Fold this protein.
Amino acid sequence: MKSLARRAADSWLRLTLLCSGAAALAWFLIRVIPKPSRATYPCQRAAFPVASAFVIWLTGSFAGISAGQWLRRKGVLLAGVAATVVVVVWSVTTLPGLGKAASTPAIDPARYNWTPEATNQPIGVAKGIHPGRVVWTRDPAATKWAGNWKEKSDQWWLDQNTDQSRVDAMLSATIQKLTNAGSDEQAWDALFRYYNRTAKNLSDRGYHPGEVVAVKINLNNSSANKADNQTDATPQMVLAMVRQLVNMAHVAQGDILVYDARRPMHPYILTKVWSEFKDVRFVQERAPVAAQPKNPAYGDYHGLEAANWVEGVAYSNGKYDQARYIPKQVMDATYLVNLALLKCHSYPYNYMENGDQGQTALTMIGKSHFGSIRGTAELHAAINTDQEATKKGSYSPMVDLVAAPNLGAKTVLYVLDGLYCGRKWRSYPLHFPNPPFNNRVTPYENTDWPACVLASQDPVALDSVGLDIMYSQSKNNNEPSIGNKPRILIREFADDYLHEMALADNPPSGTAYTQGGKRLTSLGVHEHWDSDATMRYSRNLDPVHGKGIELIYLPPAEPNNRSVAAANAGK
């Protein structure tokens, strides 16, 4: 009986090991073959030894069958011992090689050499109280981080490194100039009234108490116990926005919902906001964990919620499954503020950062709602220029996300947080060496940062300006330690999604973009400025007849501020 029991246990053990090995091999192949850089991911590093052991065991088993009865019975054990030794050696020698290969992939330089096709040739229909207006405010004194990027006790996002009062002032000036209002209260009233009039056909209706305002932030590199210096939404900018909504727009704390549904909420954001506004709600991907700070007013996780997924988005190409789900909390909101980052999404070299190169050119307004859906990975191929977006004029799911009635179509204000910018999805803060920033780039450990914020009522115009800024900073910005390669690179087809948005009624891809059973019309206006030196768009050049973007730059030396057109005319 003991022998039978032992044989049964051995059989179950072998079956378990067999299934585990087969699953690890399948997972490794499915994930790594389409994108070899995934071999460096922690999950693939864990799966690799198990998968390798399974392959070696399988090979040994077949060899044992042909070698005779003794090998059939004993060879499994020998193969397992051999597999352990081989896998350990192979893991030590091979995996670092995989990481190295992923760090510097064979990239055609032309694929990271995007340039604007034409300047001052707007397409689409400008949106906003002042159509196509983008306001860009800068204050270098707002950002004081010393740049010690490996340091985990002096991060850029601490109050000692980012001046809250200056961030508040920048956001206030930006919103007022966007609407030409005399106060923050008047500015918010104008924003809500414009939205209700144009999106809901509700004439002369402002914000009503009880209506929920969701604030979408970008936390791509956040964790429950975040201590690194990789870029995420700036806590000071998030608090500045909450202060605006509570104190100026008169939204009740409990009717404000700050969220990124794909990541844990940044601990310092929770601490900052809850210390002042205890009833503001936060939504993250999963339920709170012990590493996250509790709401000090309640002593528990009051106000920190897991996303309650419901079907809320449809895609015009008729694809996707999990990507159709959004948080019910966001679906139930009346309005939305899209507080995204001024940031690229792709960079082909692992200079400082690790991880894959990314899928597309930019992480700004258009891509922000990848953090609003459950099945984000389902959309990656559609924006990846190595996969489905291999030619100009491809379908973009970003159009559907920005126009979705339950999501992007609720937006009253679009903002780009440019205090600390990045070169790709996983990035440390980046210096901008060219005008108007003129940051020092070497040594990296210095206190010069972009220190800016941009806002618009037109999502296409805002991302167009953001792209022009990032492109301008890719020039004359080489890093000797990585073969004199640029510190910023703009991936091919960078503005394709902006063409799709601007011409959503007749896009280059030929897609019949539809939301709520209706064909989409233009989502905004797209164009490129005349030059990096003058930064003028069509409405700057011709305020009366211009049909494109109007850029108003508020430099720190001009507290009363003037439009770029007026400044360049010497008025």
About this structure: Residues 34-46, 62-106, 558-571 have pLDDT under 50 and may be disordered. Residues 176 and 187 are 5 Å apart (CA to CA).
